[in-house]
Design brief:
protease, alpha+beta, hypothetical protein yedk fold, globular, covalent protein-dna linkage, three-stranded antiparallel β-sheet
């Protein structure tokens, strides 16, 4: 909301009135005194962004209602026509208050959230044209600490002009995230490739597969299919009493069985899947 009604404000001065502090709104004098009696509004949104200062780094967070409901934020509005122009400019500001316990880690201020029908109706009732103590009581931190959820989001949200629904999602759920990629992999049931990958991965890898931290072999190939004799049942055990293998030749191990030390591995052909 512009700080003046007469001349086009500078960008820097506009930043000072993006939000209206609750302690300034309730004062009998000041910038908001001319609009708080008759020009109150509710700003609807899915949530709001705030940056967490962590050393020299700033990490954007998105805060929303736990159940996904729209937020109803207490606001003030005004319309002005600056000197030398004919266009009417409609503007608003969001009232902020002290942070509640849940969001205190993120910032010491938060928007005033009107949480029920009665508070919304009381805030929008401007029939008297006056400010009252009952309205002042509505300007308080959101009392339902378990009714909000806040999480880190991509830093690209801070770049002017960027628009994406992914900015509302946690970083862990963002498309293209490496952990998200592995979590979406499905293990083919009954396929030999799955059995072979499991037998060669070891106990630790099996546990990781169960937790979705690693993918199975077919998932990693990305469109390549390996052909060739890879059935463990067709590989014969090494006969007992066979001579010791030459130190220069290393036996080639397949799944659970091994072939003779001087045997060559079966030829494998790689065919690209269309």
């Amino acid at each position: 909301m512009p700080p003046t009604r007469y001349f086009q404000p500078t960008h820097g001065s506009l930043l000072n009135t993006i939000n209206a502090r609750d302690d300034k709104v309730v004062e009998p004098r000041g910038l908001w005194n001319t609009v708080k009696g008759k020009k109150r509004c509710v700003v609807l949104c899915e949530g709001f962004f705030e940056w967490l200062n962590k050393g020299k780094d700033k990490i954007p967070h998105f805060t929303k209602r736990t159940g996904g409901e729209l937020m109803c934020l207490a606001g003030l509005w005004d319309s002005v026509t600056y000197k030398g122009t004919t266009e009417e400019l409609h503007t608003f500001t969001i009232i902020t208050t002290s942070s509640n316990n849940y969001l205190s880690f993120l910032h010491d201020r938060m928007p005033v959230i009107l949480s029920d029908r009665d508070s919304i109706e009381a805030w929008l009732d401007t029939s008297s044209g006056e400010w009252s103590s009952s309205l002042s009581k509505l300007l308080k931190p959101f009392s339902l600490d378990d009714g909000l959820v806040s999480y880190p989001v991509p830093k690209e949200v801070g770049k002017v002009g960027n628009q994406s629904a992914d900015f509302l999602k946690p970083i862990s759920q963002r498309k293209g995230n490496i952990m998200s990629f592995f979590n979406k992999q499905t293990r083919p049931s009954g396929s030999h490739s799955s059995k072979q990958a499991a037998s060669s991965s070891g106990p630790d890898s099996k546990q990781m597969e169960k937790k979705g931290l690693v993918g199975t072999a077919p998932a990693v190939l990305h469109g390549l299919e390996i052909e060739g004799p890879h059935d463990a049942d067709t590989i014969k055990d090494e006969p007992k009493g066979s001579p010791a293998p030459s130190p220069k030749k290393t036996p080639i191990k397949r799944s659970a069985a091994s072939v003779e030390s001087d045997a060559l591995p079966p030829e494998r052909k790689v065919r690209k899947v269309s």
